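User: Structure tokens for this complex, please. No commentary.
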Amino acid sequence: MSRVGVIRLIVVIAAIGLLELACRLGFIDYRTIIPPSEMTTVLVRLLASGELNSDIARTFGVVVIAVAISIVLGFALGLLIHAVPRVRRALDPLLATYYAVPIFIFYPVMVAIFGLSIIPIVLIGIAAAAVAMIIATLNGLDRVPRVLTKVARVHRMGPLDTALRLKLPAAAPHLFTGVKLAVSYGFIAVIASEFILAPAGLGRAIADAYSDFNNRKMYALILLLLVFATCMNMALHAWDLRWSARRGVRPQ
Amino acid sequence: MTGPDSGGEVHARLLGVTRIFPGATGQQPVHALGPVDLELRRGEFFAVVGPSGCGKSTLLEILAGLQSPTSGTVTFEGQPVTADVPDGIGVVFQEDASFPWLTVWDNAAFGLRRAGAPEAEVSRSVNDALAFMGLQDFARAYPSQLSGGMRQRVCIARTLVLQPRLILLDEPFGALDAQTRLLMGDEVLRLWRRTSATVLLITHALDEAAMLSDRIGAMSARPGRFMDIVETRWPRERDSTIVSETSFGEITGRLWENLRGESIKSLGHSGAGPA
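Assistant:
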């Protein structure tokens, strides 16, 4: 591990240790936050009991569906928008300000239209993630060296062949940034939607535990999501580093 | 000497070729090239030199079919060159055009695999091309692990495996230091002798043109036209040691005599146009 990595790890461990100490010594009220060690114990017990299995499966299933659709849709729309400069010019301001709009305000509308199923949650997930992928695709395609387009013509490649064999891999570092953002945004949107209104899922389970003043379960579930989000981001970052090193570029 | 040339079988021909770029809003159109007449003889090494912005690269792209001329005709092996790059033409660009996501071996194999060549043929051709370019020990490396000169050799190897009959080199050593350029020149001469292809080299460097070429076309400032075509009369078996020959100095001297005034003119053209 690099020196920076060691420092980062020390900071995280110190923060957890400090929280543990503050809870154990009574600086933080037990009814407000429980010690991290107790969060871990409760989480292990919950996971072992199988009580969370259906919620975990549902939430992560919805995240996978929403993120997968966002990535494919975002890339396809990015390609299309990039191919028509006039459309690009028209849409650029909308894309740039998209994330200033709190998209969750549309969640009740979607529930009203599609009912209390996974569809509104998937749609909110897509609404949160797809635009990041579109923007990343546009950025990536903007940075494809023009000489590669000439190389494609020398090899007599058609537009689709050029897009898939040259532009896609050439833009890959930026696309990967889009994938990372899509995963994060999709995950946040799904959990938040479940938290607001859903028949099941981890977000709903946290909301229920909160309503029931069941701090131990609530913090255990929060810890589960934190661990999952951290592991997922670390895995994506490690993959990004490996790819970037091979291509001789810095991770985006 | 200007205009169409005689002697040897004509491999590619430009006749009355001009290129005028439409001006931006409120700007005058840019007359970048021509009219230009040129005949490339089969198997010769022809270099084009000229001041910056005189249309050298435009000329190459028109010959390759990457750009259409505003007027005039272009033929390659007797067939008109229109909007597509004809089969048998390979182009090496000044910019690094290696694919960073592929290994050196896969870079070289790109064109053959796209053409659907059998894997055995791909393997044989690629290994041969990499060995020829001195890259066999780097077959599994990625371009980011190589120097600029080696990446350019990867691009040449990728062109070489397709066995082009006309190789167009657009300032391929422009980004390299002087010593590496000389050595890369030797590589190109070896490549030219082995493939018997016709080679058109675009370059800024008079010494590079004089060392490599059978004939050198000196272009005027924009709009680029051929002012002089110099025959070097070098033997086919030559390398970078000819830079010490007396006639080498005479050739570069004659080229500079032609180009000095044009280069000064081009410096006066503050609005840079297409290269």
